[in-house]
């Protein structure tokens, strides 16, 4: 079991990552490539990507001997380049100690890892090229889908916090978990006798959904930084590029087809009659769906004379427009 201990201050410092972060999502996907479980669902996905990965991505495997990764890879960042810059900015003594930790069990250490341990610039370039090659093969083709899924997860979380409170939102992120006496308990975390305890100690918590990893929660716990909890989210199926329909699929999965179409139709304020004509439904049907979206805080309705106009709220726009630059 994973136990996350909150102080009173920590409950005011819980935040949801506003957009997906390429580096942890990439690392989650690479871990899923090597994971043995759910072969029925992920077998073909693993086979396809394993064949497609270029040789330039090979050095990434050298950093995880025995499946244990160095913690200096635990960064966020809005782009892959920004994430790698954060990795590259790690303190040299931290890089050295983490490489020594993951290779403590013995085994041959590749020459480029020796060079990375010494801070050699060429070794950092090797890691940058490996990460870029893996990103282009594994993540870039499905990144628009990841953005759509993250946006939908962000909106679900925001609505749950607004309607039911933070405690419910936390436990909804992890079905089967519970929050009691300031401790968030996640069942099913294996590999650590007696479970694992993470103490926030006023640093706060960042929730980061990941759409590739299907195992337990992934915790980034670095001294002096907020704890980042990456948790499995989304549809639980391998992501695959599917053209221009990814955003529409994500919206439909969250809202249902008609309500998703109604929200997209509000690129400008429209009357109930205008929405009904746009969607090809009756005025009563358009009004009922608009009422449901309004109750969820996704649209507003105003009356001017005899006309009723509907418009998206800022929260509703999160399902349509990107959350800033990707």
UniProtKB/TrEMBL annotation:
Molecular function GO terms recorded: DNA binding; DNA-binding transcription factor activity
Keyword field: DNA-binding, Transcription, Transcription regulation
Sequence ranges assigned to domain HTH arsR-type in this UniProt record: 249-324
InterPro entries in the cross-refs: ArsR-like_HTH, HTH_ArsR_DNA-bd_dom, Metal_resp_trans_reg, WH-like_DNA-bd_sf, WH_DNA-bd_sf
SUPFAM superfamilies: Winged helix' DNA-binding domain (SSF46785)
Pfam families: HTH_20
Name this polypeptide is given: Putative regulatory protein
Organism: Streptomyces gardneri
């Amino acid at each position: 079991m994973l136990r996350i201990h909150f102080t009173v201050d920590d409950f005011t410092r819980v935040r949801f990552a506003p957009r997906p972060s390429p580096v942890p999502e990439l690392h989650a996907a690479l871990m899923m490539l090597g994971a043995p479980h759910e072969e029925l669902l992920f077998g073909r996905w693993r086979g396809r990507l394993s064949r497609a990965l270029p040789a330039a991505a090979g050095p990434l495997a050298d950093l995880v001997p025995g499946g244990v990764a160095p913690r200096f890879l635990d960064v966020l960042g809005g782009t892959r380049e920004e994430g790698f810059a954060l990795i590259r900015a790690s303190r040299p003594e931290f890089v050295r100690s983490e490489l020594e930790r993951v290779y403590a069990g013995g085994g041959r250490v590749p020459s480029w890892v020796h060079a990375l341990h010494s801070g050699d610039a060429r070794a950092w370039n090797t890691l940058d090229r490996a990460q870029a090659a893996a990103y282009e093969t594994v993540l870039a083709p499905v990144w628009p889908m990841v953005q759509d899924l993250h946006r939908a997860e962000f909106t679900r979380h925001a609505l749950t916090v607004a309607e039911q409170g933070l405690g419910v939102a936390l436990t909804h992120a992890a079905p089967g978990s519970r929050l009691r006496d300031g401790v968030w308990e996640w069942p099913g975390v294996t590999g650590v006798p007696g479970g694992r305890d993470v103490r926030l100690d006023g640093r706060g918590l960042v929730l980061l959904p990941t759409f590739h990893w299907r195992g337990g929660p992934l915790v980034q716990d670095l001294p002096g930084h907020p704890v980042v909890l990456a948790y499995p989210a989304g549809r639980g199926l391998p992501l695959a590029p599917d053209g221009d329909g990814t955003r529409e699929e994500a919206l439909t999965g969250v809202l249902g087809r008609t309500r998703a179409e109604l929200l997209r139709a509000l690129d400008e304020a429209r009357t109930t009659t205008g929405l009904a004509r746009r969607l090809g439904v009756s005025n009563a049907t358009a009004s009922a769906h608009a009422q449901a979206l309004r109750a969820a805080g996704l649209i507003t309705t105003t009356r001017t004379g005899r006309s009723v106009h509907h418009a998206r709220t800022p929260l509703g726009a999160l399902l349509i427009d990107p959350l800033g630059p990707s």
